[in-house]
Structure formats: structure tokens, C-alpha cells
Input
Amino acid sequence: MRRRSFLSLLGGTALAWPKALNAISRDLQAGGGPQDEAFWARVREQFLIPPDRIYLNNGTLGPSPGVVVEAVAEHIRRVASTFPPGVDWEDLKGSLGSFLGADPEGLVFPRNTTEAMSFVAQGLELDPGKEVLTSDHEHIGGLCPWQLVCSRKGLPLRTFSLPVPAGSSEELFDSIVGAISDKTQVLSLSHVTFTTGTRLPVEKVARVCRDRGIVLVVDGAHPPGMLELDLASWDPEFYASSPHKWLLAPQGSGLLYLGEEWRTRLWPTLASGGWDDPGLGAQRLNHLGTFDESRMAGLLAAVEFLNAVGMDRVEARVRFLRKRLEEGLRGMPGVEVVSPADEDLATGMVSFALDGVDSLALQRHLARSAKVRTRVISEYDYGWMRLSTHIYNLPGEVDRGLELLDDVRRNGLS
Ligand SMILES: Cc1ncc(COP(=O)(O)O)c(C=O)c1O
Output
């Protein structure tokens, strides 16, 4: 799918960041294969990460490239000095819509996935006698909004288990669809689980839900900016995300996509002018009072930055680095990888346990001894270590991480 760039449009404005991004875009035109190290070294130069730090926790928060930081700062400076018109919402919706392959009119901009999922949970009419169904791999940001509404309304929130490690898309599909009952009104699922980085077959599940009148709510915190997406190809009813993760946008940039029928049906959680005007569609939910528009400037710059790199190149590089890491881990005795081996299910995050080593102690050791940032999945008592690979990571960093782990495996934590 061709991504529409809004850079040419923005280049004609008084803003400085689109001009800087145009130069980056020109510099990144040629090459960019997953092992084109000269290209990826130029990409890394766009980030502020010091060379002695190894950041393997993009799954929690993505470090913005310099041009995104500049877009935010420029917006704040301009507002403080000359009160210019704000960010153009049509540009923002158009740019994001094109990036996600989604109808721009369905886009809402809350602060994060947690808020987006809360908008959905609070805004649906849940029927007495029905249930909400979810998996045992949901993040609190996608789970607690349902806990809250279910406990308030006295409705069951039922959880089913996903296979670990998942062997195939069919196995995942069967475990999800097999858990649906005739009481299920809402199915809430991650697109990519935060626990093991497993890609769930939400597109296929969406078809089943549609046929059975079940509302599918997808927590898509991770895929935008990590995987090439074309939401229109499966037309989700609700898709929530956090562009401050893989899309490398500033903190507090959230996203909620509403399928067409819900744009007039979902109750807004926050009400301001136009909340009850069906003519505004999903845009009713964008009337949130005064808020920090600088993050929207940053979000737009982040989308255009990834467009300049090219999402096909991004996904291939993310996968190349993860595969290198994963193969290294699988080759180490005593390491149990819980992420899927199948490339259709694998993403930019790999989780594992090291026999006899507590993951939290390992995390502290890596941070203190070598400035390596990781994430431990303590939730649900899983206790796995999770590593993420994004475009600013270099193969040498992956190898260094593996070396450090191998040292702990052989010699224990010192
Ligand atoms: C799958 C998933 N959902 C939701 C969230 C919550 O994201 P946020 O804090 O941006 O709301 C996270 C955060 O890591 C996540 O991994």
C-alpha cells in the first residue's frame, strides 16, 4: 500500500521541522535492506540515544528521534511567542489514516491505549446477562477498563488461556474462538501480546465476531510503527494504540480507531461541545477541552519520520534484529524462549527465562553493569524477561546483549 506523505504540504509552511525531515528523507532514499548497515547507521544518528546505552525496551516506550523532539519544542515555542494556529487536524488525521490504512474520519486521539480502551469500555452499552471475554495475556491498560465496568455493572469478565509458546495461527485462532460462549457480548484482545510479542490472528477472529454479533475490541498498543498495517483490509470495530511506543511519537500520544457504525453509537466518556451531534461522527470524541497540542505536532512528525524510513524497511529491520536475538537465545542451553518461532506470529519482542536466574535480578544486573534496558513480565507471575528490537538498535548491540546473557548463564550474577 502506498503511504501518502504530508511533508510536501508541510514543507511550504513556516515550520522548521518539515524542512529538517525533508533532508533526512532525501538522505534515506537509497538502500535500506535489513542488513544495509550503512543505511541503518544513518537512521541511528537521528536518535539521541548515547552510544554506550543499549535500549531493548521499546515495548514500553519508544525513544523519539531528534526531529520529533524538535517538532514538539517548536510547537511549544511558537505557542508561547506568537499564538499561531494549532496543528492542522485534517493533516494529522490524513497522515495517520494513510499510515495505518484506515479511514481518517474514524480516528480519535486520546493520550494512550489505556485511555482509548477506557473510552470503549465506558462507551458501550453492556447488556445484563452477557459477559466480556478476554485472554490471560492482556496488559493492565487493556484489562482494567473492563474490570472497572464489569464490577460496576455486575457483569462477568471471563478470561481464557492462550498457548505458550504458540505453535501456529490456527492454534491461536482455535483457543480464542473456542472460548466464545453464547453469553459473550465483547471480546477484548491484543493484536500483539505484551507478554511474549505474539501476533494474534485478530483479522480472522474479527470475521467470526461479526458473524456472531460480538463486539471485538483490539488493543493494538504495539503494531503501529512496528508492522506494516492496512486496517481497512479487515475493518476493525475498535482499534486502540499508543504511538509513543513503536511509532516513536512523544509520550502521551494515543490513538483510537472506530469502525463506521460505532462513530455515532459509542457514548463519549468526556463530553464537550458537539458530544451529542451525530453529524460529527467519531470526531465527537476528539472534543476533549484544551490539551497539549505539542504532542500532536510530535505525532505528525513521527509518522512522517517513519514514512521517510519506509514502513516496509522498518518491519524487515525489526524482524532481522529480533531473529538474530532469538536465534542467539535459542542456541544457549538453559534458555527457554516463550515467544513463537513461526515468523507469522513473531514480532519485534522476544521473551524468555534463564534457568535458575530470577528475571528481575537479571534485569538489575544488565542495567547496572552494562546500561542495558529491558522489561520483565512480572504480570500474571510469568516472570519472563522481554527484549525489544527497533530501528535504532544495531546488530552489535544485540550481540552484546547475548554475550552478557551468556556470561550470566555460565557464571551466574556477579
Ligand atoms: C498490550 C498493551 N496494552 C496497553 C498498554 C498500555 O499502554 P499505555 O501506557 O500507553 O496506555 C501497554 C503498555 O505497555 C501494552 O503493552
Summary: The chain has a mean pLDDT of 96. Residues 60, 112-114, 139, 141-142, 190, 194, 219, 221, 242 surround pyridoxal-5'-phosphate (CB under 6 Å).
